Amino acid sequence: IQSAQKYKFKLVLAGNIRNESEQKWLDGMISEYDNISYLGKVSDEVLFEHYSKAKVFALPSINEGVGMVALEAATYGCEIVITNLGAPKEYYNSLAYLVDPYNVDSIGTAICEALAGRNNSQPQLREYIIENYNWKRCNQLLNLSLKI
């Protein structure tokens, strides 16, 4: 949110708010910024529609496992900006922008670079995700790991 405030790119947020306190915090963060919106919880259909319209999907999380939403967004052609912490970066074969999730400028400059088309990885990223993370390939990898 702070990166969108500073760098003025359009930011669309979606997902669950856990409680009234979080809602007040979010409202306070975005109320004065026309470039930032919050959709709330959305259906898969609406989510996939947003993926297909987006150029960049950012997940600069400080605590993320796989980050399935980023993998989904990549298959819709989004450039991916993802945390350099934890496991998510391992899924992108150096085809995503890695950012320090604690650094507003790291996030903001990566998103702006992706929006400007600098060092973009699509459609190679989409092809890589589809080839390496489909059901058949995941089952093969699981079976190989069980034989060790």
Using only C-alpha atoms, the radius of gyration works out to: 16 Å
Please state the structural category: alpha/beta
Name the shape in a single word: globular
Query: Low-confidence runs (pLDDT<50, min 5 residues)?
Result: none
Query: What portion of the residues fall into strands of 2 or more residues?
Result: 5-15%
User: What string, H for helix and E for strand, traces the elements in order?
Assistant: HEHEHEHEEHHH
Instruction: Name the helicity range.
Output: 40-55%
N- to C-terminal distance: 44 Å
Main-sheet strand order equals 3-4-5
Write down the overall mean pLDDT.
Answer: 93
Q: Report the strand count.
A: 5
Q: How many DSSP H or I helices?
A: 7
Largest sheet: 3 strands, parallel
Please, could you describe this protein's structure?
With 148 residues, the protein is an alpha/beta fold. Helix content is 47%, strand content 12%. It is built from seven helices and five strands. It has helices spanning 2-7, 20-30, 44-53, 68-75, 104-116, 124-132, 135-146, and strands spanning 11-13, 36-38, 56-59, 79-83, 97-99. The strands form two sheets. A three-stranded parallel sheet has the order 3-4-5. The chain has a two-stranded parallel sheet with strand order 1-2. α4 (68-75) links the parallel β3 (56-59) and β4 (79-83).
Describe the protein's topology:
Blueprint: H1 2-7, E1 11-13, H2 20-30, E2 36-38, H3 44-53, E3 56-59, H4 68-75, E4 79-83, E5 97-99, H5 104-116, H6 124-132, H7 135-146
Parallel strand pairs: 1-2, 3-4, 4-5
Give the key terms.
148 residues; alpha/beta; three-stranded parallel sheet; two-stranded parallel ribbon; 7 helices
